[in-house]
Design goal:
The chain has two domains: about 260 residues, 3-Layer(aba) Sandwich (Rossmann fold), CATH 3.40.50; about 130 residues, no CATH class. About 35% of the residues are buried. The protein has an eight-stranded mixed β-sheet with strand order 5-4-3-2-6-7-11-8, sandwiched between helices. Strands 16-15-18-19-17 form a five-stranded antiparallel β-sheet, with no helix packed on it. The radius of gyration is 24 Å and the shape is elongated. By secondary structure, the chain is α+β, with helices and mostly antiparallel strands. It has eleven helices and 20 strands. The N and C termini lie far apart (about 60 Å). The protein binds S-adenosylmethionine. The site of S-adenosylmethionine (SAM) has 21 residues, from strand 1 and helix 3.
Amino acid sequence: MRPKNSHLGAAKSAKNDEFYTTWPDIEREMNAYLEYDPDVFRGKTVLCPCDDPEWSNFAKFFALHFTDFGLKKLISTSYAPDSNPAKVDYQPTLFELESPAFDATKTRANGKKFTLEAKDVNGDGAINIDDLQWEYLEGDGDFRSREVTALRDEADFVITNPPFSLFRQFMTWVIGGGRKFSVIGSNNAITYNEVFPHIMANELWKGATANSTDMVFGVPKGAKVTEADRLKAAKLGYPSDADRDYTRLGNACWFTNIDHGRRHEPLQLMTEADNVRYSKHKEVRGVGYPPYDNFDAIEVPFVDAIPSDFDGMMGVPITFLDRYNPDQFEIVGSSEGDYPQSKVYKGKQKVVDGVPTKSHTGSYACYVRVDEFGPGTYFDVGYPVKRIYKRLFIRRKVNR
Ligand SMILES: C[S@@+](CC[C@H](N)C(=O)[O-])C[C@H]1O[C@@H](n2cnc3c(N)ncnc32)[C@H](O)[C@@H]1O
């Protein structure tokens, strides 16, 4: 029997999966692909898994634009309420209840498949959401099922906001299909093993939008939302309504392999000498770029302080990916264990305000050597060093 706690844990993480994407967030990102290639979706099949046009915006968005995007086919699949611990109070919609295909058992136990093709089914002269056909899937609509995987393989594009708790599995599944995709995830996923090697290989990149702005998500009524996030969402135009509450996430972003113009804009940067002279950052101005003690690279604490003429390896914050232009730089690794350290410490002791403390110090990180243990947090590796947050290692490509 499954221990009670693991069931509660499953319900809790599944509740965190019920984040519904807002229309403007989808529109902004898709528009960036269309701006770069107006025919990007022409003649193509789009699959929106982990979705449901009865309550989500992805399929609605593509149904509305079916004709102007020139789509061949739109497929959306939903996940069975019985398989989803977050759907305890599930009720079928009127749309489903009133349909001749309604089945009182399948509505809970099976996923659904919604399909729109270039056929004016209701004869109103337009192809839109009203022409969407639906049926129950044989299984529960799990994206990993044979059935939904076959739909992935039929599609040219897979576009959705997948369950956060299964993000790693979803990335493996979607990348494994070899299709174009665009999915919402968290910035923290950048260094995942399922993601980062593909970023390095230039097979996957950040989307064009929402990189430095909040994304607002609908959540089921009564879901736990902090007051600060509720207020922020309301300020961004999403006060609670009859159907949903709203929250915002500061670190949500898109991961895609669909090209967009943003990744072809070069970062405008100053030379190393000019940064040392004029940088707006006090950490760089008059200071320069210290080498790491344990990696063969220099520390660049801000993306806009990357020196334009430095030929060696540089450690940069992961926000670099929001501005990454693969013609300008190459990414060679990260401080998370996939790039060789030039020095591995035998042991590290944390020192806070000069006082050695007991603490877990983590195995991966960049360290910069300093002169002495002063106020603040240091590590003693036989001499004082300061720990630097997650870094990506990059090298410039142009004019080398
Ligand atoms: C983050 S929500 C996003 C919903 C919708 N795509 C949107 O953006 O509004 C993820 C959805 O995936 C569904 N889900 C959870 N586990 C799943 C699985 N194993 N297979 C397919 N869908 C799943 C959940 O029911 C949830 O509604």
